[in-house]
Amino acid sequence: MRVVISGGGTGGHFFPALALLGEAKDMGVETFYVGAERGIERKLESLIPSERLFLRVYPLRGVPIKERLKATGSFFKGFLKLRSCLDGEFRSLILGGYVSVPVGLATLSKGKPLYLHEQNSVPSATNRVFYMVARKVFITFEHTKRFFSGDHVIRTGLPIRKELKEAKINKKSAKEVLGFDPSSPVFLFMGGSQGAKFINSLAVEFAKKTGVQTLVITGDKDFQRMREMTEGMEKIKVFPFRTDMGVVYSAVDIAVVRAGSSTLTELSLFKIPALMIPYPHAAGDHQFYNGKEIEELGGGIVLRQEEATLERVIRAVDRIVNNHGAMSENIGKFAHPNASRVILEEVLK
């Protein structure tokens, strides 16, 4: 039995798919990955541990009408290409992103079982459509049950790569690896896989005002600006990205982040309480609701971007510092370290 896994375009869709592919390999399950030519998955193709296919498809949401027509045509071409190469016994698991559309359609046209994983608290338009015909739906957030209900909806958490789960090291050692004083706390500012200019600029203001050790994952686009802004500041370190995020999370005491599902899941695995500043233009305001679930668990604080002045950010971080032990334990309650295996076992039933 072969499992077709699709999810890509951004790291939020691709890395959970990659986690599932890695787990399937460990279980001896044959997989076939479908991604987009223009997505992050194409750049990171060498990480994919299975046969793969990249479709020339384009996003449908948030683009002009002419681009929507182009996207619709690309879905149809992708559907036809997939239909011609998917044969034998298989079932499909889609994790979102525009490449999931032709995969879902091709699977259903072949009369094969379709499974969904919804990463965010508010489901994507694609998953809302396929939910009606999916055999099972796996979710990350409790909030999603307001949209998806029934016995076939299972809260599993978000799949996380084995390499990250096993990468935790001693906090003192991790701080030394990154060049920080191991006797003082480290604050992480990070805007997700693409970076966030607002979070980056806030990090510089925060570091100047407080004098604390600060690590910023800037994203590629904003790295040069950030490097120039922080020149001569000894306690702030900036990187466009890090491949050793296990070391980063092991070193960090508190995080100031967007509220993407992958970021929050990774923080929960390492029990790092967070100040969450949701991306204000996220579809369905899903990052806000992602963050509220963590806040309701007692593992962090949510501030809308328009409310996130330096003074309010410092006050919120102070609250986390003063309640660090309890908040660390509370955000840890969100973690589901065995999500990949649980999902695959359900798919293979």
Quick overview of this protein structure:
This protein folds into two domains: 2-155, 3-Layer(aba) Sandwich (Rossmann fold); 164-332, Glycogen Phosphorylase B (Rossmann fold, 3-Layer(aba) Sandwich). 43% of the residues lie in helices and 17% in strands.
For this structure, what is the CATH class of the largest domain? Alpha Beta
**Major sheet:** 7 strands, parallel
The CATH architecture classification of the largest domain is 3-Layer(aba) Sandwich
Poorly predicted regions: none
Shape: globular
Number of helices: 15
- Computed CA radius of gyration, to the nearest angstrom: 20 Å
How helix-rich are the residues, as a percent range?
Answer: 40-55%
Please state how the strands of the largest beta sheet are arranged side by side: 3-2-1-4-5-6-7
Defining key terms:
alpha/beta; 2 domains; Rossmann fold; single chain; globular; six-stranded parallel sheet; 43% helix; 349 residues; seven-stranded parallel sheet
Describe the model.
This protein is an alpha/beta fold and 349 residues long. The chain folds into 2 domains: 2-155, Rossmann fold (3-Layer(aba) Sandwich), CATH 3.40.50.2000; 164-332, Glycogen Phosphorylase B (Rossmann fold, 3-Layer(aba) Sandwich). Helix content is 43%, strand content 17%. The protein is built from 15 helices and 13 strands. The protein has helices at residues 11-27, 40-43, 65-85, 100-109, 125-130, 162-165, 171-177, 197-210, 223-229, 245-251, 261-269, 286-297, 310-322, 324-332, 339-348, and strands spanning 2-6, 30-36, 51-55, 90-94, 114-118, 136-139, 153-155, 186-190, 213-217, 236-239, 254-257, 274-276, 300-302. The strands form 2 sheets. It has a 7-stranded parallel sheet, with helices on both faces. Helix 1 (11-27) crosses helix 15 (339-348) and helix 7 (171-177) crosses helix 10 (245-251).
